[in-house]
Amino acid sequence: MNGITASGRDSATELVLLEGPDTLIGRLRFRTCVACRTGRILDVWVLETWQRQGLGRELVHGLLARFPDHRWSTTSQTREGRAFFAAMTRETSIPFPHRGPLCTHLSGRMARAWHALAVTGRSARPTRRGARAGGARR
């Protein structure tokens, strides 16, 4: 593992594998919620010429070592992705379900707004005084 790059609060973090100083050969993008001790793997990518050499496996093990007490989910996967995460589950005894995030903190802003609307029946966004949630005046 060559490094980890982090972005803003609502952005993904990456574990990267480099060949030499600047050739990217593998990447695992993820998000975590410290409060809920959950994480979501967004994608694992390995350069085609480097595939089938255990590099994706190395990236996942690196992630689990950095966040040993977290529960994980993944995004929708290809057939190869489902086989990969099934093998990782057998190897690590850690499930990697491919469904939505395990906590609402890992949802995007739109998903959080839809969740708030479904739960409360009201918009999660504060409205201006005298305006309805839909923006129409009374």
Count of structural domains: 1
Number of helices: 3
Mean pLDDT: 78
Label the overall shape.
globular
Measured by DSSP, the beta-strand proportion falls in 15-25%
Describe this structure in words.
The protein is an alpha+beta fold. The chain has a single domain (3-120), classed as 3-Layer(aba) Sandwich (Aminopeptidase). It contains three helices and five strands, in the order ββββαβαα. The protein has helices spanning 55-66, 79-92, 109-120; strands spanning 3-5, 13-19, 23-33, 38-46, 71-74. Strands 1-2-3-4-5 form a five-stranded mixed beta sheet, with helices on one face. A hairpin with a 3-residue loop joins strand 2 (13-19) and strand 3. The longest helix has 14 residues, at 79-92. The chain is globular. The termini are far apart. The model is unreliable at 127-138 (pLDDT under 50).
Offer a quick outline of the entry.
With 138 residues, the chain is of the alpha+beta class. 28% of the residues lie in helices and 25% in strands.
